[in-house]
Write a structure and sequence with these properties.
This protein has about 525 residues and is of the alpha+beta class. The chain has 3 domains: about 120 residues, Beta Barrel (Lipocalin); about 230 residues, no CATH class; about 45 residues, no CATH class. It has 11 helices and 18 strands. An 8-stranded antiparallel barrel has the order 1-2-3-4-5-6-7-8. The protein has a 6-stranded antiparallel β-sheet with strand order 9-10-11-12-13-14, sandwiched between helices. A hairpin with a 4-residue loop joins strand 6 and strand 7. It starts with about 25 loop residues before the first strand and ends with a helix.
């Protein structure tokens, strides 16, 4: 579906000679519920026939067909590869506008076009000279957590928003449109249960956040929290009375964002939402489109009290700083945290009042989720840095020492996190109640001795073995070969220096049996 490819910069022809009526270039928006997408449409007349293109924000042009113009009405169609789309609109106003509806299957949504370029289409993204980009990048130093990501995300070696997405949600959308998968709309939860099943996201992973930190903040509250579910590649968020939000990791492109309107349809739209990048591409996400988890001090209605501060969540975060604005269910032992409570005095962070209502929000799922989300960002960032470096080397004909040092810093940061260096130690035993821990641990893969990187500890630390299960993720497998070579070398160094011999050998044995691309340094006995 053409709406799935939305990016941040593009080429467009400006200054086209405009003639009265429909001919020329029009700019505007398509507006499904809760979403808005910029487009440009160009109509050309040749004698009695018409031709045209619909231009997307990433520069992709889709031919327009079946153009029929009668007085001030126009209809036209396009086939973006996933079903025919038909537009019907009328020309009106002293400042001309075309407004109407577009239809696909049994769904219809409004659109509006004018002669004035939208903000997205004002100016083209010029090709960056490799030497200029190199100069900008080498002016910074340090690991990704300290160093900004300079290249544009639609750089040819990355192609975010330009290349076709292959993440699980994009794949599901293609299956829905070609009829091989059907989503069922059922009751108050709408598509939620059917969607989780189609994406193989366990319902046991449910977590609940009641702080107003989302696109749907107006309807989120302690009484109506946002429920979040996840697997190794996808996060699904649902709030009663709103639409479904999805974040899905493409093996090479990183996190793509989508929304599913809660309206019954034979083939429902799952819409790309790159406007999510206004929050989800920042220093807190390592400057790439990524995941964000925060712990806040919430007021009684869920509004974060920003002057009191907030904390980013991952497995290194102190437990006393975790889960502000979240429900936490299960046995947390002696652990002190900010969950299940609101601030009664907005001037004092310590004035926390426990909430009476508690929504299932498994503590083990929360701990796994916060570990995984930051690692997903790190994998994407490191992959992009290696691809950019290879592109610059090819363009300039030489390697750069500063870029090589940046790659080493990036590798070190990823490996340290992958191997749980600096993980916050558990203050006591933790136990979930949803069945998530049991279902998660059963997935494997397992070595010849029955051991798995998904096995939990939950008394001293999160997992029994100090290596993340995300080493099996499609995004890790898709890392450039030179990136994986550096990562594996660094992993062996850290495992040798940090772990006791028995635990080090257990991790290496598990990897030997379950990871096919390990280098000789791991496989030689």
């Amino acid at each position: 579906m053409f709406l799935l490819c939305v990016s941040v910069s593009l080429w467009l022809m400006h200054g086209l000679a405009q003639t009265p009526g429909f001919e020329g270039t029009w700019y505007g928006t398509i507006s499904p519920p809760g979403a808005q997408f910029d487009i440009a449409v160009s109509f050309q007349r040749s004698d009695a026939s018409w031709a045209g293109n619909l231009l997307m924000e990433n520069g992709t042009a889709i031919p327009i067909t079946e153009i029929v113009i009668a007085d001030n009405t126009i209809t036209f169609s396009l086939s973006p590869g996933q079903g025919k789309v038909t537009f019907t609109g009328k020309l009106s106003g002293a400042t001309p506008e075309i407004s109407g509806v577009f239809r696909q299957d049994d769904s219809s949504f409004p659109f509006k076009l004018s002669r004035t370029p939208t903000t997205t289409f004002q100016g083209a993204a010029l090709a960056i000279d490799p030497n200029e980009l190199l100069s900008m990048m080498t002016s910074f130093s340090g690991p990704p957590s300290e160093r900004p990501f300079v290249p544009p995300i639609n750089h040819p070696s990355i192609g975010y928003g330009v290349r076709a997405a292959r993440d699980p949600v994009a794949n599901l959308q293609r299956d829905i449109q070609n009829g091989t998968v059907a989503l069922k709309f059922d009751g108050e939860d709408g598509y939620l249960r059917s969607l989780l099943e189609a994406l193989q996201v366990p319902v046991e992973s449910q977590m609940a956040v009641f702080s107003k930190n989302s696109l749907q903040s107006e309807i989120i509250s302690p009484q109506n929290p946002r429920r979040v579910y996840f697997n190794d590649s996808v996060a699904v968020a649902f709030v009663r009375g709103g639409f479904i939000e999805l974040a899905s990791q493409d093996p090479e492109l990183g996190i793509n964002f989508y929304m599913l309107p809660q309206q019954p349809a034979g083939k429902p739209f799952i819409l790309r939402r790159d406007n999510c990048l206004s929050c989800h591409q920042s220093r807190n996400s390592l400057d790439i489109p990524g995941m964000l988890l925060r712990s806040v001090y919430p007021s009684a209605n869920g509004v974060p009290i920003n002057p009191l501060g907030s904390f980013l969540l991952d497995h290194r975060t102190k437990f006393e700083q975790r889960w502000g604005g979240w429900y936490v269910t299960g046995n947390s032992g002696s652990m002190q945290h900010l969950g299940n409570a609101v601030v009664s005095d907005i001037t004092k962070s310590e004035s926390m009042t426990t909430l009476k209502e508690s929504v299932p929000s498994d503590i083990v799922a929360l701990m796994v989720f916060e570990h995984q989300m930051h690692l997903m960002n790190l994998i994407t960032r490191v992959a992009w840095e290696f691809r950019i470096a290879a592109s610059l080397e090819g363009a300039t004909g030489k390697r750069n020492e500063t870029i090589d040092r940046q790659l080493r810093d990036a590798t070190n940061e990823l490996v340290d996190y992958l191997l749980f260096v600096d993980e916050a130690a558990l203050p006591g035993k933790v136990q979930g109640t949803s069945g998530f821990a049991e279902k998660f641990a059963a997935q494997g893969p397992r070595d010849s001795a029955g051991r798995s990187l998904r096995q939990f500890d939950l008394e001293r630390r999160l997992f029994r073995y100090s290596c993340s299960y995300m080493i099996y993720s499609p995004a890790f497998d898709a890392l450039p070969a030179d990136a994986k070579k550096s990562i594996y070398e660094r992993m062996h160094q850290v495992l040798t220096a940090r772990l006791q011999p028995a635990e080090r050998q257990a991790v290496i044995d598990i990897l030997r049996d379950t990871k096919k691309d390990l280098p000789a340094v791991f496989t030689n006995r």
